[in-house]
Amino acid sequence: MILNETLSRRSFLRLAAASASTFAFNLTLFSPGTTAAEPENRYEITSWMTIDRSNRVTIRIPQGEIGQGITTTLQQVIADELNLEFNQTSWEFYDPLVNYQRNNVYIHTSTLGSIGMKMLYQPMQNAGAQVRTLLMQAAATRLGSELNHLRLENHHLVDMKKSMSIGFGELVQNAGSQVIPADFQIIEHPNRNRNFVGQRLSRVDANDKSTGKAQYGIDIQLPGMKYAAIKQSPVFGGKLKSFDAQAIANSPGFQKIVSIKAGPSGYTVPNFFHEVIDWGMDDAVAVISDSWWHAQQALNALPIEWLEGENQGVDSSDIDKRLMQKISEPGEIIRQEGDIEQGFREADEIVEATYYYPFLEHAPLEPMNCTALFQEESLEVWAPTQYGDEALRIAAYAAGLPPYRVKLHLTLAGGGFGRRLHSDFVSQAVQIAKQMPGVPIKLICSREESIRRSYYSPVMAAKFKGGLNADGELTTWESHVCQGNSVYQPYGLSRMVYSVPNTKISYSEIPTPPPFAWMRGVGHTQSFWMYHSFIGEIAKKRGMDHLTLQRQMLDVSSISPHDYQSFYGLGSNQKDTAARITRFNERLDDVIMRSKKVFSEKDASKHGFAVYDMSYAAGVSASTIAIGIEVSISPQGLLKIKNAIASVDCGLAVNPEIVESQIAGGIIFGISNALHGEITLKDGQVEQSNFHDYPLLKLKDSPKIKVYIADSSDKMPNGIGEGAVPVVIAALVDAIANAGGPRIRKLPILDRNGRIKT
Question: What are the tens digits of pLDDT across the range 205-222?
Fold first, then answer.
């Protein structure tokens, strides 16, 4: 069975022209038939799915599943394209090696940027349409039918005139044997209905996850498996000097001590970003034992000497001083309009404020882990990763093997939030396994190691200055944001929608010891609450309500063209800004209206509202989210977050239930970070080690949450995984100020006693 392998690029691009504003997709069909990788009687009809003889369709998911529900939503897309019975479909993770060998047939394999459905909806839909066409053509041949007489029903093709039918499983070999010509045209769906897309379906993995059947990376069990615990230099950039192996030689279950070399860990930033960075990991020591507990106890007792290097004396206070100094100096101008100097000379009043955002750890529930089995000429890896392709590359590099000799199995991941984009834990597991050939090694990082030696959301400080005229109008705006180690990301401030006649926005960076990681948006997440809060300070100076001023500044009639370079190098314009402001006002109106029925306290002074869209550049759409927060503050400074309400326009909501859970999760994540999150350094070492000193929001302290989704079913899907985080922080600091608390300028909000910092 031979299939002409490639659908012409020209014809596919024509079919996929509406996929996304600035991205083009290429989809390749590959030879079906049983292979070494396929069970007997199961046939690959495209790289995206297989069909077995019982008519069951299996969808390949080209991303990691970290809780975002992509395994469910992509099945909904295919189920509609093929008119399937949803309970007769299944899913499996894609194979990164296949993607490597087939020149990135899966297009977008990293779980990041809230763009999973945005990037994969159209390609998956097109894959379904191609399969439908192949099956219909095969059925027409087998049944002697006219194409326009065929209908898709219950995993069968039915000839409505002849009252004959044939199952997908019987057709798949015939479908795959067809030669696809260069001018291949997709047959329109003969009985298209949205039976699944847009519907509230339970997650396909919900039962397994709730009953313990689901396998996460940490659950992998292999015959003869040994366990490894690991410790890196306590100071970032430190080198291993020596260790005393004899001190633990008689430890229970002890197998071996191995050293791990510093090296690349990913994440290699895609080339449409400003620069490419491959953040390195440091030297480490691992102890292998017959159980992880034995390994960790032996490691704790192991005497280790480190060469701690240039960062050994660095404190958080040192970093903060450098940040404050940097924002007082000229930075790279990323947006400029009008005449900033003249604006301040003519201003009747000046408002100034400085804001601060700390290093933050992702703290996913499942600690970093990876299982590896090294053989002489091959490697097999099981990894809970957000980027399978990168994990494959890192595994091959660590093993000293070409990628085609590496088999990488994706597993479910217990949270990620950006941390699992890095593959340090994969490299470490492979390096350990290479020193014990033929023995499966499961590496599990302790919670302490996962927190102390992580890749953090970068520290940031920003200085704001506003000039008001005699009427109290904001005529001049100047801001300078500086952050620690990161990729270039000034877009949070440069994409400010508020129009001020004289504007100057600057950006700079300083080197800091901890390595960088994305954390649910980063640039927007760090800076949006800052300029939102600064507008609140301006409102207070004018003696007016923050919300009133915010609404005045969201005025389409007052906007001017913005000529500046943003993250993707795409300039903004009046049309783009006007469309954003319109969406902002719609969501803000909606959330305010709905809050009147939800908030228990009718006193608006205890409420805060914010709206944003995580937009990176003009023409690149993003979900617009407005959030309202209701709080109360006790005389002792104890904060109670009572209610949170969100109104979201995410384009087509493929599964509204998943959208709601993602928004609710983002609200909890954002509140937790804002209240408690802070990683600090003392003598070059991270001070926090576990949840007792890096606390997360508890259920008893969480607000009641309601999410409302705008009907935008005529649009393409936009991502929602990140969007709630910056908005809820902005709404929260606003609510605290409105409730009589301080105007927050520095995170975290609460001290160790749970009181609002003053």
Answer: 999 999 999 999 999 999
Which of 484, 335, 350, 362 has the alpha carbon at shortest distance from 422?
362
CB 30 within 8 A of CB 46: yes
The residues spanned by each domain of the chain are 9-197, 222-310+368-444, 316-361+456-738
Query: Quick check: do 9-197 and 316-361+456-738 share a fold?
Result: yes
CATH of 222-310+368-444, one of 3.30.365.10, 3.40.109.10, 3.20.20.70, 1.50.10.10: 3.30.365.10
Condensed to tens digits (0 to 9), the pLDDT of residues 76-116 reads 999 999 999 887 899 999 999 999 999 999 989 999 888 89
Q: Where are the beta strands (DSSP E) in 94-200?
A: 150-153, 156-159, 164-167
Residue pLDDT, tens place only, 593-610? 999 999 987 777 899 999
pLDDT above 70 covers what percent of the chain? 90
How far, in whole angstroms, is CA 567 from its chain's centroid?
Answer: 17
Number of H helices, E strands in the chain: 18, 29
β 379-383/369-374 pair status: antiparallel
pTM over 0.90: yes
Side-by-side strand order, sheet with 332-337: 332-337, 502-509, 474-483, 460-468, 349-357
Architecture (CATH level 2) of domain 316-361+456-738: 2-Layer Sandwich (3.30)
Q: Which fold has domain 9-197?
A: Aldehyde Oxidoreductase; domain 4 (3.30.365)
